[in-house]
Amino acid sequence: MTLLVISPDYASHLLPLATLATAWQDAGERVVVATGPATASIVAGFGFDRADLVLGRGSNPGVIRAEHQPPGEDDALRGFFDATRHGMVATLRYQAEARRADLLWEPVDRARAVLDVIDRVQPDQVVVDHLAFSARIALAAAGVPHADVVLGHPSALPVGDEVYGYPTAWPAAFTAPEAELAALHRLCRDVRDAFTDEWNAALRALAPGAASSADAFAEHGDLLMLNYPAALHDPARTELLPPHAFLGSAVRGEPATDDVQDWLAADDRPIAYVSFGSFLSARGDVLATVLEALRPLGLRVAVATGSATGLPDVPPDWLVRSYLPQVALLDRAAVAVTHGGNNSVTEALTAGVPMVVLPFSTDQFAGAAAIEAAGLGAALDPNAATPAELTDAVRRVLDGTAPQLARAIGAKLHRVPGRDVARAAMLG
Asked: PANTHER family, from UniProt (predicted)?
């Protein structure tokens, strides 16, 4: 049997998909990953075959920097970072406008490239990233059965009267005037309609006579797989989902490097792990506030700085690197301070670690709201939280019931790994 995994050229997308594919690899089956050149080393590290497939203008091998992106994409990334400084609504408006161009990049050409990979690989099963719209339109046009993996918060697939890009929930720390929210909702509807028109035009070019979509953002594969714990998902929303499987998490094995192992062994005090992921680490101003907030707590601190610059000096016993083995450090952490990206959230929960979440964009708001509602941590506005407020939030999380609740969730996620759920669901 051959499994084909289709992923954009982004490490944050490929890593969980590749982790799911290890269940096929361990069963002695062939795995081919179709993705771009930036993440080729990740594919090789997993021991998979690779088919070259570029699905978008940008790429991210692990830490994204605007200056490493192609012309146009660099300015778009800088614009996004600037929008995050103006708050939730400004960021979501920017992302909605950008969505007109970045989610269906050269859709007919890219779809034909996907179908060429299908012809060459001849897979028995196909797993595709939900956000790889050009790939999914190819599979739909050709009638290729496939599993569609939502790697972000489940709200990335709208159900009921939801509109893609408009948060299904946000934490208590975030407020906005009703008029601004109404305008954002209108913009997201307009973008949905324009995106759907483009999807339908590409679909007709690929498969004349194919049925049109009413909402391309709500399209999905034959099997929907959600990289998210079912326990955190609103049961009423679960009832609206198409046939699906909650994977819980897709956490890879990630051994600590020698220097990290030495640091972990040097002291047994509780550890705070800090990371804003591959994109939002650019917000060095917020990261600096977090570092200041952690000073008085007496914790050991491990900080993945990513692309952040201008950070203050920190105590000499803190571990500060541009990149750190997140999974290995979370296994030892007492609390995580995070932007709330879905990989970070699911990896922290699998390790049984409560969180202080500072969401900046997209589904991070809904994810942070779920963490807050479940008592698994606290959520603050990254543009407004002071060092004192962050210090207090970390203390409250550590001293409350969040650690116990997180350990209980982690125990459940460990019992049935997401990769095993995915394989069982696909084998039927």
From this structure: STEROL 3-BETA-GLUCOSYLTRANSFERASE, STEROL 3-BETA-GLUCOSYLTRANSFERASE UGT80A2
